[in-house]
Amino acid sequence: MFFDSLPGETKLSGRVHFISVALDPEHDSPSVLRAYGERTIGGAAPFADWDLATGSPEEIGRLATSLGLTYYRESGQITHSPATAVIDPNGKLVTVLEGNAWGPADA
Fold it and tell me: Is residue 33 situated within a structural domain?
């Protein structure tokens, strides 16, 4: 399971739920996302702590704008700025962590 790859962070299981949003609904259909998650997340219940989602281009655009995420199509690929939104159990946006140089303690 994903949490097993975070040394000392297994206490997060059951307290943290990840949602990754695919930015290319033309290619990232629910069945493609399910297969990707089963391969990448792994474990007996890969979606117990992690969901993979997509939406219409308009929905994805609204979400990206609300989080300050930029993305664009380049050479047939989607290029985007890395960002992780931290949302509390009540659905309130706590912070957006930009880039990839943060760890669990930052969240």
Answer: yes
Compute the Cα dihedral for 20, 26, 30, 36 and give only its sign: negative
- Plot region of 64 (φ>0 → left; ψ -120 to 50 → alpha; else → beta): alpha
In angstroms, the CA 81 to CA 100 distance is 10
| Cα 29–chain centre separation | 15
Averaged pLDDT, 60-81:
90
Q: Could you give the number of structural domains in the chain?
A: 1
In a domain, 86, yes or no: yes
Q: What is the CATH number of the domain that holds 62?
A: 3.40.30.10
Q: pLDDT tens digits, residue range 19-56?
A: 999 999 889 999 999 999 999 888 888 888 889 999 99
Strands (E), 1-107: 18-21, 50-53, 71-74, 77-80, 83-87, 93-98
Three-state DSSP at 14 gives coil
